[in-house]
Amino acid sequence: MIEKTVAELSAALAAGEISSVELTQAYLDRIKQYNQSLNAYITVCEEEAIAQARAADEARAKGENSPLLGIPLAQKDIFCTEGVTTTCGSRMLENFISPYDATVVERLNKAGAVMLGKTNMDEFAMGSSNETSYFGPVRNPWDVKRVPGGSSGGSASAVAADLCAIATGTDTGGSIRQPAAFCGITGFKPSYGRVSRWGMIAFASSLDQAGPIAKSAEDAALMMNVIAGLDEKDSTSIDRPVEDYAASLNDSLDGLRIGIPKQHFAEGLNAEVEQSIRDALAEYEKLGATITEIDLPNNHLSVSAYYVVAPAEASANLSRYDGVRYGYRCDNPADLEDMYKRTRSEGFGDEVKRRIMVGTYALSAGFYDAYYRKAQQIRRLIKQDFNEAFKQVDVIIGPTSPHTAFELGAKTDPVTMYLEDIYTIAVNLAGLPGISIPAAPAGGLPTGLHIVGNDFAEAKVLNVAHQLQRNTDWHKQKPAGLGQEA
Ligand code: GLN
Q1: I need a surface site. Which of 17, 187, 379, 464 has the fewest CB within 10 A?
Q2: CATH H-level superfamily of 6-256
């Protein structure tokens, strides 16, 4: 049962084939069996989960029925959860217990979902491999010597290994889509503003978005139906009606205009991954889509612009961790300055410190025009490229990542790691919705197909993703490597 999709589990729960308590217990057992080798969860909430499952079963007995009622899921440990630690993958927040739930958490709880626990992640969501977590790296269930991607690697590993039915993630530059690609599952980043950021620990506020990490596009739509929508607590959440994302999944793709960016099929793309993407495009042609090459002329500037904007915002957001308000505080400080310095030196890991320094530098008076303003100008050009492209096409498709999952420890140079998001980052800079779904595996490892839509075209993106999954089995491939010793 635990390998099933949310849609299937929901039907089984409604038909009384299984109770939420039984299902929850099955996932908890599986977590006990595999979490030690995968390190996907930082916190497992056994008792709370069973209590939530019991409540879901009772609600169902009273006649309630909604798609997520009684469905066991995992929350990325970036979402504040009342009464349960929220670490953000950092020593700084190792013992932090939030007094409130993030809006995403609150909405999922209200929908009757069961929270199995909090998933591991790169520290403050900075990374592409999950190796920057204070709680140790996460491993990819397809091959435990390999990374699951990052920063939502714990969620991706947990979904791929059936340690939950579905999970949440966040995506600032690719952190939902790239781990989904590496773990052979579906990860959806909505348009900026579609899902509330309230209670989601801030990394780069103008880029961060929450979204589902799931076994199918249909499941992603079911979660979106719960988490999307205006939240008055987040002033950047958009006041725009929420569609029923499950309703248009089966719309025909006949006449769909797909654009493939020539910049995404150039040097650097692994040949086998490219073949998988081309095979998926051929499937779309069979479904009636037409394919044209498009130009995103400023795409090559996206990683550089992001690594000015994101650290700049991070340096401001992370200034709150000073040992005074909450979180880690160093022992026996000599004076206030010593306390600030040692708290931040000891509480943050290297990558976080690097970003704070880069961001502070880019925002400093003498360099603001040269770096920050320039990066914002590039951001505008990137958005304009997409605007032009969407005059000609309905969706843009390419690879999510240039290659499959790499081995732990393989990338030690930060800039090489930053290039991981070469195909995904521009989408965050432009605020657009994007999904990664499995294409055919390459060399026995998953590959990701990246589908990008215009502003607030989440329904279209999910529809395009779902149609491929209806007509192919790539998303049903399962890791065979589970249980290998690390
Ligand atoms: N890999 C990118 C970074 O390290 C993106 C991370 C994210 O999307 N949270 O910043």
Answers
A1: 17
A2: Amidase signature (AS) domain (3.90.1300.10)
